[in-house]
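User: Some background: our group keeps a shared notebook of sequences we're curious about, and every so often someone picks one and asks for a predicted structure to add to the entry. Today it's my turn. The entry only has the sequence so far, pasted here. Could you supply the structure so I can complete it?
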Amino acid sequence: MTVDQMRFTIRSHWAAQTSSAAATAPVDLGPMPKWNLSDLYPAPDSPEIERDFATAAAEAKRLRETYQGKLVAMGRDGAALAEAVQAYEKLADLMGRLGSYAGLLYAADQSDPARAKFYGDTSERLTNISKDLIFFELELNQIDDTDLAEALKDPALARYKPWFDDLRREKPHQLDEKLEQLFHEKSQTSRAAWDRLFNETMAALRFPVEGEPEPLPLEPTLNLLTNPDENRRRAAAEALAQVFKENLRLFTLITNTLAKDKEISDRWRNFKDVADSRHLANRVEGPVVEALVSAVRASYPKLSHRYYQMKARWLGKDRLAHWDRNAPLPEKPERIVPWSEAREIVLTAYNGFSPEMANIARKFFDNGWIDAPVRPGKSPGAFAHPTVPSAHPYVLLNYQGKSRDVMTLAHELGHGVHQVLAAPLGPLLSQTPLTLAETASVFGEMLTFRALLADARDARERKALLASKVEDMLNTVVRQIAFYTFERKVHEERRQGELTPDRINEIWMEVQSESLGPGIELKPGYEVFWTYIPHFIHSPFYVYAYAFGDCLVNSLYSLYEDAHPDFVAKYFDLLKAGGSKHHSELLAPFGLDARQPEFWHKGLNVIERMIDELETLDKTVA
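Assistant: Of course. Here's the predicted structure to add to the notebook entry:
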């Protein structure tokens, strides 16, 4: 497994705003779990780590000595190719285990120099080992199509056909081995180094929020934007703006450098559009993404514009300041949900859909696969990391007891369930493209939301729950497409030269104004809020996958509510397929087709109907 494949499946609250307000005073949430990484390795200095590094290095050299220059000649010999691919896959699992452990250890405390060094050293060692493997996929792609088709008749090799199909799609963008090796080695001092600089800068920032006894880290400062007190929200927004402005030159340099780095890579690899490499990685066609983007942007007026104007009325304002966008509604005070209750809410919702789903999710609580508490230095937001098929996933949260934290828990456990179900496919087939990786997570959120809505005691509580869900969906669909639009503009303009901080700010304000509409007033200071969004740095154009997943799940959930035949079995088949099938294959049993505009409108109509219901409830509770 290459270093590029060792990635987190991230659900950060700044991407979809599913985390919730931080209470600045201590709140008793009950005992919360911290993950136990010993299922990967006992400790960063354990002899098992050095043993596995030595094994990986030796096996990589053996593969190179055994197969380099010979794979094409093996051609039609399916059994021999299967033996080679199986050895390559086994090594991918071992290297993935090492990379996963280092990444998770670092995420738990990015401010610890020892962990940062271990993470950096591990990445460098894995990069050096994988240099011996660069030839492997390049040579497989040189096998004649007719010969490969003959070889794939061998049952042992046939199971890897989806992987070979994906390799063939990469072929037009692959370079010769020496150039691939150069790109690979230089990544440690180019993109990876800038990524790390961004991470460690963000982890070290402190925000002087008026009224706080001491400056706060990023996570609790951002969470204050959902505080019931407008003065607290405003103070947090002003503190964020102040510190982001103080560091604006650095974030502009990081953005310009990484955009140029991507342009160089795209040019050498013959990618024409700025997002083509992401589309290829996601196994989705550019026109499908553009259909999604067009449908969402056309829906801005009837979704986000309409909702935020309604919310302004609820809060007694003509327009909402940007710090009021995620303010809680006045009708229902936000109660604190202890960890044990959050656990039961999510597991009960999952069990109502499928006891098997609940049983898998329960393992995360029972076996130390979750790290829930907020800690200084801990990675902000939340994510689920699949690690490797020979182990199990881990979930990171920053749980603070709000209803949105409960939804984040449901979301990340959805990722975890998906990863567990796909794991039997092995390292080469289990990794799900980002566009489909959000399916189980968003579906898990929807199950939990519907369970909470069914238990609502009156119209006011129902209204508050619906409003919260609509806001999450707007943040997941509208906000992410606005992010994608922002990225496109930045990367397209960067091809003509460096962007100034003012120009990036202008682009940000243009796309945010378009997406949020007249109900939101973007006050001075908001122009620098692009600086803290990690997806722009770590995974360019990742963000549309959230909108893709949300609209897809809305369409699926509508079928579930309509008692679509064998829905649960078909849904589990979708999850178990991991990355072994194209989205068109996975959606066909449900009668859905993402290539058709109607597919996206079906998903967007779910949000519109919720806003319709909110308008009706508004009259009821007025």
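Suggested note for the entry: The first strand starts at residue 9 and ends at 11. The longest helix spans residues 78-108.
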